[in-house]
Design a protein that fits this description.
CATH topology of the largest domain: Multidrug-efflux Transporter Regulator, Chain: A, Domain 2
Shape: globular
Strand order of the largest sheet: 4-3-5
Number of strands: 5
Strand content: 5-15%
Structural class: alpha+beta
CATH architecture of the largest domain: Orthogonal Bundle
Largest sheet: 3 strands, antiparallel
Radius of gyration: 20 Å
CATH class of the largest domain: Mainly Alpha
Number of domains: 2
Number of helices: 7
């Protein structure tokens, strides 16, 4: 796998049904979809994952497909060009929708806002998780006499399970702290 997710994993990340995605592609509504190079599958990099995730949210909100894909396409184009973008919004301006970081002009109505920096982290975490899963299931890791759960991302044999449980514990502690602060 290259640095990204296959279509199946990307759609799971985005919460988008395969039938919906196939319809979008068949109708030519999303020109920025990763290209298919036979015999390999589409590979969604971080920018493509963010765009398809937003597309999934827009479909969830029942936005018309042509509008949803236009917004996702514009977002993909912008974040691919400038990785420093922190947040983007879809703005309604008279009869059009514009994707921009800031209000394009007085009177524009913000329809949706996405924290791109947070989505980048989520997309990267998902790619890392999938890479770990591929690494664990690879024949090279099991041929050394190690089970999949014993192989670290770097092949060191250190258990990732411990790291994940430590992360879960720190997440739990942080959640408990926030709950105490709200009381």
């Amino acid at each position: 796998m290259d640095d990204g997710l296959t279509t199946v994993d990307a759609l799971a990340f985005a919460g988008l049904r395969r039938e919906t995605w196939n319809d979008v592609i068949a109708r030519g509504l999303y020109p920025r979809a990763p290209k298919v190079t036979a015999p390999a599958a589409r590979v969604f990099n971080i920018d493509a994952l963010i765009a398809v995730y937003i597309l999934g949210r827009l479909y969830e909100c029942e936005v018309v497909p042509r509008v949803a894909t236009k917004i996702a396409t514009d977002i993909h184009r912008l974040i691919e060009r400038d990785h420093s973008i922190q947040a983007l919004s879809a703005w309604r301006t008279n009869a059009t929708i514009i994707v921009a970081e800031d209000r394009p002009f007085i009177g524009a109505i913000e329809l949706f806002r996405w924290e791109i920096a947070e989505l980048r982290v989520r997309a990267l975490d998902e790619i890392r998780t999938q890479l770990r899963n591929v690494k664990r299931s690879s024949p090279a890791s099991t041929s050394r006499g190690q089970t999949g759960s014993e192989v670290g991302l770097d092949g060191s044999g250190r258990a990732d399970v411990k790291g994940r449980s430590t992360a879960r514990n720190s997440n739990r502690r942080a959640r408990q702290r926030r709950q105490k602060e709200h009381k």
